[in-house]
Structure formats: C-alpha cells, structure tokens
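Quick one: structure for this chain?
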Amino acid sequence: MSDRFAVLLQYALPKQRLTLLAGRIASARGGAMTTRLIRWFVARYGVDMSEAQNSDVASYASFNDFFSRPLRAGIRPLAQADFICPVDGAISQVGAIDDHHIVQAKGHRFTTTELVGGDGTLAAEFRHGSFANLYLSPRDYHRLHMPCAGSLILMRHIPGTLFSVNPVTVRGVPNLFARNERLVCVFESPEHGTFVMVLVGATIVGSIATAWHGTVNAKRTGKPTEWRYADQAIALEQGEEMGRFLLGSTIVMLFRQGTIAFDQSWIPARPVRLGERMGDRPM
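Got it. Here's what it folds into:
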C-alpha cells in the first residue's frame, strides 16, 4: 500500500466507530478467544514477553490486561539525569519550539496553543522552549512514566478525531497531534518549572488512563473537560507511572526555554527506552 493511499484511507475510515468496536473487543473476557488474539498479536508484532512481569499470555483475562501489562521489576533502571525518557518507543521529532511552533514531520508544523486546546496563556510559557514527540508502536510497553518529579496542576481532555499516529500518517496528515483526541497534563517541578505531557489518542486506542484519575475518555462525550488540582497534593517522583494507553499512540512533551538540553543521541527515528537519559538542565 502506498503512503498516499494509506493516508487517504485514514480520512475515509469510520474512525470513531472502529475505535468503539476495538475498545469492546479489547475489554472483553473471551477466554480461549482472548488468548488466541493475544498470541496472534505477540507473534505479529514481535512483543518481547520475557520483559513482562507476567509472561504467560494465557493468564490475561482481557486484551487490555495484556496490553497494559507491567514490566518486570528492575528491567528499566533509571539513568542519573535531570530528565529521563518516560516511555518505550521511538523519537518522532525533538528539538526547539520555533517561537510557538512544533515540528510534526517534514513540511508539517502545529502550534503549542493548538496542542493544549486553545489555551494561549499556558502555551506562552513554552515560547522558544523545547519539545519531544515520542511514538509508541503496538509492540511497545504502554505505561507512561514521569521524566522528572512534578506536582499535577491541571488535566484537560480535548475531544478530536482519531487518526492513526503511525509514521506514515504523521507525515501525511497536517496538524495531526493538534487534531486528534488528547489529554493535556500540566505539572509543576520545583527544579524545572512548568512542563506538559500530552497523551495523544489514535484510531482504536480504547482509552487513556492516568494514575490519579483512572480511565479518562471512556464515554467520549465530544465535550472538553478540565480538572484542576492546585489544592490537591498529587506529586509524582521521577520514573513513577503517570498513565497508560490501551493500544499504541504518541506522547508530546513541552518544556520551558532553558530547561532541558537533550542528549546528543536523541534524533528522529531513534528507538528509546523508559529510564534512559533524555537530557539535563543546561549548565
């Protein structure tokens, strides 16, 4: 299938209906049928079950239980760094925010204001700052962790479309990350100031969940929703789990100007692992 046809197909597909159907299948407790689905998925995508806390595919009651499986203790040691990689995946794009624009792919950019749901005041905090877009493929571990310690200030669920976020679609659909359904999580770090983690939904991503809220977008009402946590003590340490995807997607991180110098090895298309050095505060 050509890239152009694959992108055109994305526009034509009934993405919301497919996602609802996939969510029902993934949450079903189908016994032997569920086990066969998981075995097929492991073989199709080359999932390394030796890294899972529970490597027995037949023991998972639902596909969601398998997909959001935890890793074995100690399998992802945390680097001694100001910022660590929060996921297993691959770097889609990384670098400086050009005034208020983020690179999606060659020829495609979107604004920080669009990404965070039209909040110009929040977006202005990241003018000339830094960003990283990390893609989680179907084979990857799908829990999300904290790049540095931070206290939760705000969470905003923004409804949108559900384009796939695979590399072909990212190259072909303008403003994809700012068009798709997404969950904006705003944190305050005592060392690094405000930073944002945006969990981007995609086709057949059954739901997005956080450690403090649980499943956020199960009903998909189509209306933006916001929660504020300034009066609550929700503080997460570096490396602590903050959320998870049910089926693959992308996370976009925003940092203030002068906050992070990315590791020199961090370039587009490079595979990354949870806990590795992402960067340090500039000297």
